[in-house]
Design a protein that fits this description.
Blueprint lengths: L13 H6 L2 H20 L4 H9 L2 H9 L9 H30 L18 E4 L3 H13 L3 E8 L2 E8 L6 H22 L1 E8 L3 E7 L5 E17 L5 E12 L2 E9 L4 E3 L2 E10 L4 E8 L5 E6 L3 E4 L4 E9 L8 E8 L2 E8 L2 H7 L3 H4 L11 E9 L2 E9 L3 H20 L3 E10 L2 E10 L3 H19 L1
Antiparallel strand pairs: 1-20, 2-3, 3-19, 4-5, 4-18, 5-6, 6-7, 7-8, 9-10, 10-18, 11-12, 11-17, 13-14, 14-15, 15-16, 19-20
């Protein structure tokens, strides 16, 4: 019984067919896009906590149950990426044997079209001897092709040449690149982290707090902020801020560097970013005060500290220092303690301008009156700002893996779109005492370009014969 008439004994593999289907690929990509959209629209991680307080209880419960407030670390994303990886592997295994056969196989089998029946633009007649014509065509092909073989059948010589065989594997390089990128993304999602730490000048820390502030990450080194500086535009917006950091290991300086926005420092696999800054609590002020029309005195004092007023038998304590009180500028809350009780009020640095903009505000809001404890009048002469630097500490073990995957993806795309496996067959024979040369070929892509190239090869032979 001929082989083609033998019954097909191969067992059907529905699971394999399902995993190798393009339809599954489209569905998985659509679901990944949907997750990405949800991760963009729905507040994530830290912001999700604040949003949940204002959301409907039922909706908040659904978001929490489905892990939609942390989409990019959710089991849904991990499962979809795993299925997509499996789908790519199975599809590649299905197609790879055919590509390998095409890579290893001969350029052509026995010709079925005699030279005289080729299109006129792909054949020519010459008075050169067949041996000369064959040698000249071989030299032309060697310039851009790899000679794959030479055969003679029925007084006709055949030259086989090809190039770009490895381009057949470009699609598999793309698949491999995507798989490596997915592996890197999963590694970063599962084993990477982002943490935050705030440091005042001169302060050091060996811990950083993960998002939410509930968990902390301890390092085997400490980071110290030696200096923090910030420059402002005339509008008051920050222009640039910089942190000078020292990394200590075992009590010794291991590394030093400065940190700016978008200029991170890498130390022992941890990447430090300049994330934020702010006014550190417990700053100091220059507090002025006078008794009636007497001489004004000034004292440098910090939050929680007090100064005695011996003439009044009282003491003034700084209860609070605010950088921008009710959008009216720097202010300090003072508490005057006397044997009869306490008097609390606010002292604004720009009280004169505030009164000009809001006439009568001191009478309407007595706590804004710097002379509420008569006969003393207080003034905030200077606010000594002490800033803290906010550092983000990130570690992503998948980052180099993703970079390698991106390189493979780029290389595969270049192979697929800018190269092709082209195979050329040249026939040299005689007819009517004349030498006939015919050329045919095939290409994995761009057949029109192949036709033009074959015409150029024949044109090169004609020019060389002149």
């Amino acid at each position: 019984m001929p082989e083609k008439d033998l019954p097909n004994t191969r067992k059907p593999r529905p699971l394999w067919a399902f995993l190798s289907s393009v339809r599954l690929t489209v569905v998985l990509l659509a679901l990944l896009v949907l997750l990405a959209v949800l991760g963009t629209v729905i507040p994530q991680r830290d912001t999700a906590m604040e949003a949940a307080r204002h959301a409907h209880t039922g909706w908040a419960a659904v978001v929490d149950a489905l892990r939609l407030s942390d989409v990019f670390h959710s089991p849904w994303l991990h499962a979809l990426l795993g299925l997509l990886s499996l789908n790519l592997v199975v599809c590649s295994l299905n197609r790879f044997p055919a590509s390998l056969r095409a890579f290893r196989g001969d350029s052509f089998t026995d010709p079925s079209v005699p030279p005289g029946n080729l299109p006129p633009t792909l054949s020519l007649e010459t008075g050169d001897r067949p041996e000369e014509a064959l040698k000249r065509m071989e030299d032309l092909l060697k310039k851009t092709y790899r000679l794959a073989g030479r055969r003679t059948r029925a007084e006709t010589d055949f030259l086989y040449a090809d190039r770009g065989r490895y381009s057949r594997f470009g699609v598999y390089v793309i698949h491999l690149g995507v798989l490596v990128i997915i592996a890197g993304a999963l590694a970063g999602s599962l084993f990477g982290f982002k943490a935050y730490v705030n440091l005042v000048e001169g302060e050091s820390s060996d811990v950083a707090y993960l998002r939410g502030g509930e968990e902390q990450k301890k390092f085997d080194f400490a980071v110290r902020c030696d200096r923090f500086s910030v420059d402002f535009y005339e509008s008051g917006a920050p222009k640039e801020y910089r942190s000078d950091l020292t990394f200590l290991k075992g009590g010794r300086v291991a590394h030093q560097g400065f940190l700016r926005v978008n200029s991170p420092i890498l130390f022992e696999g941890f990447r430090f970013y300049q994330a934020s800054y702010g006014i550190a609590p417990g700053g100091r002020i220059s507090l002025g005060f006078r008794r009636g029309a007497g001489k004004e005195q000034s004292v440098n004092i910090g939050a929680g500290e007090a100064v005695e007023l011996p003439e009044a038998g009282a003491r003034v304590r700084v209860a609070r220092i605010v950088e921008n009180m009710m959008e009216m500028g720097p202010a300090v809350k003072l508490v005057v303690e006397t044997p009869k009780g306490q008097v609390a009020f606010w002292v604004f640095q720009e009280i004169a301008e505030i009164e000009r903009a809001n006439p009568g505000i001191v009478r309407q809001v007595p706590m804004f009156n710097p002379g509420l404890f008569a006969p003393y009048v207080f003034s905030l002469d200077r606010l000594e700002r002490k800033y803290y630097t906010g550092l983000q500490v990130a570690r992503d073990p998948g980052a180099p893996v993703v970079a390698a995957g991106a390189f493979l993806l780029f290389a595969g795309l270049m192979a697929v779109f800018f190269s092709s496996h082209r195979q050329i067959e040249v026939r040299v024979g005689t007819s009517g005492g004349r030498t006939q040369i015919g050329i045919s070929g095939r290409s994995s892509r761009d057949p029109r370009g192949l036709q033009e190239e074959m015409r150029r090869i024949l044109g090169g032979y004609t020019k060389a014969s002149l």
